[in-house]
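This section describes the prediction task in plain terms. A model, or a person checking by hand, is given the sequence of a single protein chain and must write out its three-dimensional structure as a string of tokens. No templates, partner chains or ligands are provided. The sample shown here is typical of the held-out split.
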Amino acid sequence: ANVPSSKEQQDNDYLARRDYVKDYLWGFYLNADEQGYPFESDDDRFFGMWVPGNGLNHNEEPNMVYRPVYGRNDGNNDNDDVDQGPKLIGIDLVALRDISPNEELLDDYRRHGKAPTWLKEFAVQHNVSLVFADCNDFVAE
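The expected answer:
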């Protein structure tokens, strides 16, 4: 059997993690219209990572949209600040129209906005493109 060396395994692990981040990291604006496009160019966004095989492909006519889910702090958790009011507790992925069985789920990556500075630095350091409009050649700004 051809077993990779420890160094080769570390290199393979690094490449797999790097590619996971570049392919599955996404963001959406909390202040957006019903179609998911931001009202303004603020940077109030939620970032997440898809599980491989559960992501959405890019299309300028999306059939899905991210929606923020808010909850109330009930004071039962040491991290809760009851005076803060509603807080973001997750997201829902919502269909924009009826979707047929076996139809691909689509997102307009332009809705992710431009990548924040910390993410651009990651892309440069690791020589990768990202699904944000200013980080690749397949999503027009």
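For orientation: The first strand starts at residue 25 and ends at 29.
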